[in-house]
Structures are given as structure tokens and as C-alpha cells.
Specification:
By secondary structure, the protein is of the alpha/beta class. The chain is built from 21 helices and 14 strands.
Length: 487
């Protein structure tokens, strides 16, 4: 433990990514069995035609591109160094991050009942704090804390640094999930974190390798999450290997590892592709309005259309979302197809006797092919690897790279320049920090974790080349120097 170099960045300037476990556990225990939303009369709920649940995803990476190589938000870099277009977009983005703090109170004050879910990465929250965007943080605080508005806005948990779950080491992804909770609690309070029941995976990426998928779900459950949002084409029905036949009802995502252990969590299915126009134009509500009732456990219930999109990216989202959201929030208030958040919908189902065990089962895509050739058991990891190799050779469409919002990006292939140093520093972090159990109160722990989480953001892989890969490599280099033996 003493071999780790002292922190190079003042601990006071870094976000608290650990050390609040006791407070979080106490808050979660206090809220565990409480309903977070007012539940309608069962007859009133089942008489609804349908429900629409929309979410906005917000993210900016941090980059080592400030003065002297200091770490700053990409948003700040755009404001200070970009072209005229970049500076313009950065200004609009900044407004997008805070505007719900005005839209929601205005609608509520006018007597309407808006609903929206939001997912803010930890790296974005840190970047906003570091660049002094206090008006954004205070706008978000209103939505996270004020009882008048927190029923309208459901916060979704995510990975702090926007890491892609299928290709991030399981123990590191858990660190991302826990770090987001600690950081969010430090900003908005432990109770605000305890109210976060749904999880939004970065890039909608779901692992399909059995051991990684199991670790993913177990992490979410261990961290107190009740449900996860999944992309329609990343899951399959175990019996058929086909996409879900009923994507507009909740399912149970069940993941088995190579030893036969199972972990499960409720999942809501995000249908269709990831097009910001779907949410910017509130298409999920219009789609839901045309759906017939669904059946769960022999009970006729309103189906749910779930959709998420970038909350700031693209002209349609930047400029057309606010008036369309306001229009639909007004139309949906008191209508047979209301806007409803994910946890709210699940609480309504629970109130009429429908719980997790009643939902149909799904598993990550491609697993049916695997389970027909492989039987889980103790010490079967080597056999699993051999089976995967055989299937990959015999079927060019088979892979264990997971699925995400797009099938065009594997997040693994052709990324060796970054993945190799990422894997190296992940191993070093385990050997120098996790294995010897360096106290989370040690400022070296927090800085090393900060560098690790930033290095693993999907942004450095999305573009595949150029300065973005350079940024990721630089984060890895800094962490490696910190973790290697002095001298």
C-alpha cells in the first residue's frame, strides 16, 4: 500500500467517489419498503389505456486538456477552445442540463402532472461542479430533493464514468456503480440516492458473456437497484432465442454464470433504435396511445412504452424537445395514456398483486446458442471459453461482446491501443489498491479511482482513433505512474 505515490491532485478538488457506504445503507434501509409514488386506485390504473415512460441521458467526459494537462470537462473545453459552432453547442448543452428545473415547476404550478426520467453520468456532474456551473447543480437539486417535483422526475442510476459494461472488468464496473451513488449522495443527500431504483446502462450496453452478465446484474442488485432499462435487441427469450414477443410489459432479466449461479432483476424494454427524435418529439406517448391492453398473470394491464435518448445532443433535442414535452405533458395529464416513470409503473403493478416473479423471463442475446452446448458447473470457466471459441468459429454472427444501442459498434474490436493499457491499469488497481484493501478514506484511493473511472469512459472508444483515444491512453498512463512502485 505504501508503494502508491501520493496524490498529485488536491483531494478537495476531486469528487467523493467512496467512503459513504454507511450513510447509503442506512438511507436505503429507511426507504426500502416505502412507495415513492402516489398509487392510483387499482380500478383507475387498470382502466388506463397505456403508459409512456421517457428518459433523458446526459453525459460529458472529462479530458486531460486543461491548462498544463489538467483534467476538465469536455463541456468546458468546448466553451473555451472550440470553434464558433462548438462554443454555441456548449452554451446550449449547458442550458439543456438545467432546463428541466424550470419546465417541471412551471407545469406543476399550472396544475399539470409531468413525468420524465433522467440519467446524468458522474463525470458530467463532476465537470459541472468543477467549471462552476452552480446554477445547473441547483436546478437539478430542486428535482432531486423537493417533494413537489421529485415525483415528476425519476433519477436513474448509471456508471460514474460512462463505462461500457460488456468490456469493462466486472470489479471495475461495480466501482463505477458505487462511485455514482457516493457522488450523487454527496451532492443531493443519501435519501436522494435511496430513491434511485432504476438503472440506465451507458450506451444501453448489456453483457452477454455469462460471467460478465451475471456480475452486471449482481452488482445492480447488491447496490439496491430494482430494475434496469435494456435495449430490445440485446435480450432474447430463453426458450426460442428470439426477441421479446411482448416488449411493452416488464420482464425479468435472469443471468447465469459458468458455475450455475443466477442473478435476476426486473427490466423495462427500450424499443426501437436510439434516435433522439423519438423522445424529442415525444413519439413514445403517441405510440403508447395506439396500443391495446397487455396481460400479466391473467390480469389486463396498461402496457408501457419505454424510451431513452440523449437529452442535449442534436438540434431536435436541443430546440424542439421543450415545447413538445410541455405540449404532451399537458395532453397526458388526466388522459387514458398518462406519462409515468418506470418505478411508478412497477409500484402500480405491485399494488394490484403483480410482482417480479410474475414477469416473463429474458436473458442476454446469443445465450441460447451457448446453453445448448454448455452446462454450467463448478470450475467450468475453461470449458465455457472453449465452447465460445467453437461457436465463434462455426457461426460468424455469434459473439460474446454484448449488445448496445447500436449493432455497428462492438466496443471491443480494433480498440487494442486503448484496451490494452486499460486492462493493465485495471490489473494494477486491483493489485495495488483493492487486494491490499487500501482504506477508502485514503486520498490516494479516491484519486486512483478517479483516474481509473475517467479512463474507462465509452467516449474514448466511440470514435476509435485520434485525440479521443489519446485522452484515454493519457488517463491510463497517469494512473499507471501513480500505481507503480516508487523508484
Amino acid at each position: 500500500m505504501t508503494d502508491i505515490q501520493p496524490p498529485s491532485t488536491p483531494s478537495s478538488s476531486l469528487p467523493p467517489l467512496c467512503g459513504l457506504g454507511g450513510e447509503l445503507n442506512a438511507a436505503q434501509a429507511l426507504i426500502a419498503d416505502k412507495r415513492l409514488y402516489p398509487v392510483r386506485d387499482p380500478a383507475a390504473f387498470t382502466s388506463l389505456r397505456s403508459v409512456a415512460a421517457c428518459a433523458l441521458h446526459m453525459h460529458q467526459p472529462n479530458i486531460p486538456a486543461g491548462p498544463g494537462g489538467s483534467i476538465i470537462s469536455n463541456l468546458q473545453f468546448m466553451l473555451e477552445h472550440g470553434s464558433d459552432g462548438d462554443r454555441y453547442n456548449a452554451t446550449v448543452f449547458r442550458d439543456c442540463y438545467k432546463r428541466l428545473g424550470t419546465i417541471i415547476p412551471t407545469l406543476v404550478g399550472e396544475g399539470y402532472d409531468p413525468r420524465i426520467m433522467v440519467d446524468y453520468s458522474g463525470s458530467l456532474l463532476y465537470g459541472l461542479e468543477a467549471m462552476g456551473a452552480t446554477e445547473v447543480i441547483e436546478s437539478l437539486r430542486l428535482l432531486a430533493v423537493d417533494p413537489r417535483y421529485r415525483v415528476c422526475v425519476e433519477w436513474l442510476g448509471t456508471a460514474w464514468g460512462h463505462a461500457v459494461a460488456p468490456s469493462t472488468p466486472v470489479q471495475d464496473f461495480r466501482l463505477h456503480v458505487e462511485a455514482w451513488q457516493h457522488h450523487f449522495a454527496a451532492i443531493f443527500g443519501a435519501e436522494a440516492v435511496a430513491r434511485v431504483k432504476g438503472f440506465s446502462p451507458p450506451e444501453m450496453a448489456l453483457p452477454n458473456h455469462p460471467d460478465v452478465a451475471y456480475g452486471f446484474v449482481k452488482t445492480l442488485v447488491d447496490c439496491g437497484y430494482h430494475w434496469v432499462l435494456v435495449q430490445e435487441h440485446t435480450v432474447e427469450e430463453p426458450e426460442t432465442g428470439h426477441s421479446p414477443r411482448h416488449p411493452h410489459i416488464p420482464h425479468r432479466l435472469v443471468c447465469r454464470n459458468s458455475e450455475g449461479d443466477e442473478a435476476s432483476i426486473i427490466c423495462l424494454i427500450k424499443t426501437q433504435g436510439s434516435d433522439t427524435k423519438l423522445v424529442a418529439q415525444m413519439q413514445p406517448w403517441f405510440e403508447a396511445s395506439s396500443l391495446p391492453h397487455a396481460t400479466i398473470k391473467g390480469i389486463s394491464v396498461p402496457p408501457i412504452v419505454s424510451q431513452i435518448a440523449d437529452g442535449e445532443n442534436g438540434g431536435v433535442m436541443m430546440h424542439e424537445f421543450p415545447p413538445k414535452f410541455i405540449e404532451v405533458a399537458k395532453l397526458a395529464t388526466g388522459a387514458s395514456t398518462p406519462l409515468m416513470n418506470g418505478t411508478e409503473y412497477l409500484e402500480h403493478l405491485a399494488a394490484i398483486g403483480i410482482t417480479e416473479r410474475d414477469f416473463p423471463i429474458l436473458q442476454p442475446t446469443k445465450q441460447k446458442q451457448l446453453w445448448t452446448r454448455f452446462t454450467p458447473g463448478k470450475n467450468n470457466a475453461h470449458q465455457l471459453a472453449s465452447t465460445i471459441t467453437e461457436l465463434t468459429k462455426s457461426d460468424h454472427s455469434f459473439h460474446m461482446e454484448g449488445g448496445s444501442w447500436t449493432s455497428n459498434i462492438s466496443w471491443v474490436r480494433d480498440y487494442d491501443r486503448l484496451l490494452l493499457p486499460m486492462d493493465k491499469v485495471s490489473s494494477l488497481f486491483y493489485e495495488r489498491v483493492l487486494k491490499p484493501k487500501l482504506p477508502t478514506s485514503d486520498p490516494r484511493y479516491n484519486e486512483a479511482l478517479f483516474l481509473l473511472l475517467n479512463a474507462q469512459t465509452s467516449c474514448f472508444r466511440y470514435w476509435g482513433e485520434g485525440v479521443w483515444v489519446d485522452y484515454g491512453v493519457e488517463f491510463c498512463s497517469r494512473l499507471q505512474k501513480m500505481l507503480e512502485f516508487a523508484g
